[in-house]
Amino acid sequence: MSVLSRPWLWSWLAAAAAFSLTLGLTSGRGAGELGYAALSFGAFAAIVGLGQMLVITLGPGNVDLSIPATMTLAATLALKAMGSDPGTAFLGLVIALAVGFGTGVANYALIFLLRLPPIIATLAASLIYQSLAIWSNRGLRIKPPAGLADFATGRFLGLPNVAWVGLALAILVWVVLERSVWGRWLLATGQNLRVARLAGVPVELVRASTYISVAVFASLAGYLLASFSGGAALNMGQEYLLMSIAVVVIGGSSIAGGNSNVPGVWGAALFMFLVVSMLNSYGAGAGVRNVLTGTIIIAIVIAASSRRART
Amino acid sequence: MTFLARHRIILPVVSLAVLLAATFYMQPRAMSYFGLNLLFNLAVPIALATIAQMMIIMVNDIDLSLGAFVSLAACVTATFLNDAPMLGLLILLALVLSYAVLGAVIHALELPAIVVTLGMSFVWGGIALFILPSPGGAAPGWLRTLMTVKPPFAPMAVVAAVIIAAVTHLLIMRSGIGTVLRGVGGNARSVARAGWSVIRLKALAYGLAGLFGVLAGMALVGLATSADANIALRYTLLSIAGVILGGGEFTGGKVSPTGAVIGAFTLTLAASFLSFMRLSPDWQIGAQGAILILVLTARLIFRQKGSEA
């Protein structure tokens, strides 16, 4: 397989194109700042995208629509527990991840016990998580502890800390998918659930752990995002619903499942940020920006799918 | 096959009836011409959007751009259709056609509909922002009159629901072309082998979805009297939930137009019911989710009985 036929290539090419087009306007000034911003904001999209990728890999019909609600709920409860007190960052993290674990279990319980289609199950459950977040938040905006806020907005070796977290998770997911039995089970389940079950793969265990993973990823993203932006807001997760699906598909993972692509998720996450800043710097209004973003998404999907068909 | 599995429509009907009875029990004054109209007024555009979503689900796809599309149709209605009716009509027609083209492209290039419609949701939203950067516009007078008409015996919303359900039932369940369209969802290959052009059928299904999406936008403006670019964004998820509540399935062309209309009405009623219960506003969204789960749980009875037989 040549480099050209790698499905993740397209998202990275698109990100690079958007990056250089933006810099073309400023004749190269601000490259570092733009790259830094893209890595910071791209990290959140990449983390939720990695989770969504695992779920989408499970096969047609599998998608988690509760990501925004899980992010909001985890961030709200974690910040409430920390109450801006120093030294509570770890406690907050544990609470956020526990919330993610809980919503993941709840989502899967609805899917498995009530046999609801995952789209509907996660949609209905997300309404409940949203209510829980509203109820516990009550419009308060609690600041994250100073140390945690410094970490979330800080840098290490010149790269944003959140990007390091996103990168570490990407490597973890990649290793698990490519090198562990669980990863092989997941891919087999996504390619053909019936065959996988007959071959002795514990299909339901794989599905359960996947739905829990995506929720844990979402809760981590929510925790980091709230620390990054100085507090949890009820609409903080909103844009990550479409974003999480978009980065998976632009990244070259098959929406039909059974084929996932970790590097592509990061490329697409960078691209989604860069394309908006590119259109902004060319002075496009909100309307034009949306139209072009949508057109570009579709163009990439067409390019990636015709590429796949030929190889 | 048991009685319940054969008559899937019973579930949506019973859920709506139970919810309606509970609402009347909580608030007897709702049991009137005026009360019913207030309860179900806003269900009409949702029902039309649900029918649009059903057309897409019927051919095994899913439309994530419907909310943005209905918003765009609403913006066009509140601006062009009001100021320059001919031009407005042409734009709305072009929107319907572009949906048909979208269906053909998705089929021809074998693209995943969920992603293409995701991208299109940005496009529709962008155009809507372009047309109406800030909330405003005005409903054409005739549309306003149509949506606030007071027919004898039953309120407008109920009459509209019956008309929508009857027309789409005839089109999808009774007519020859409707059967073929559902066949595309059931087994596209055998429909193609039988000599039908699947690409045309998909274009037709998407075109119908576009038509009902436009009608939903128009109905919404007729009720709300103005529009904005985000007016109907929540319709995307509401319409999917409505189709499933109405007994539809995501695959296999198993849909029910009557069920979809009832599903949309159930969702609308659930919101009113919760405000009658004097539930704290914090919990209203969550309770809506709980009602959704509860009704869908009832599907289990239908599904299992069906598969055992």
From TrEMBL, chain B:
- Gene Ontology molecular function: transmembrane transporter activity
- Designated name of the protein: Ribose ABC transport system, permease protein RbsC
* GO terms under cellular component: plasma membrane
Domain of life according to the entry: Bacteria
Main location class:
membrane
Q: Which Pfam families match?
A: BPD_transp_2 (PF02653)
- How does the entry describe its membrane topology? Multi-pass membrane protein
Q: Which organism is it from?
A: Mameliella alba
Q: What are the UniProt keywords, alphabetically?
A: Cell membrane, Membrane, Transmembrane, Transmembrane helix
Q: Which InterPro entries match?
A: ABC_transp_permease
> Which compartments does it reside in?
Cell membrane
